[in-house]
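Section 5.1 Outputs to date
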Amino acid sequence: MKWLVIVAAAFAAVASAADISGTWKGTAEMQGNAIARTFVFKVDGSKLTGETTSEMMGTSAITDGKIDGDNISFTVTAKFQDNEMKLNYKGKVSGDTIKLTVDFSGFGGGGGQTIEWTLKKAS
């Protein structure tokens, strides 16, 4: 019986991670300006893929994505003014909200700058 409870708890943790599939809309502050981005997540077990779109940088694929319980991480290769940069996102899922942090140091010589995103489930 004890093993059944442990297996059920492990399954519940995986099932809740799969819940982020779909469209999420997020906002962040960058140099005093609010910026918006849409994320479309696809989950397959612990693998996270999809795409993200913003007015500033267009559409980019989500790669190297992982889900571990409530923690997520992924990479986006964005193009801005003919420069490509890899943005590494890390975050935590809490119900219908995801809090993400991205290292933006490659953007305009930002020198270690991070941006915090708050995403809400859209569909």
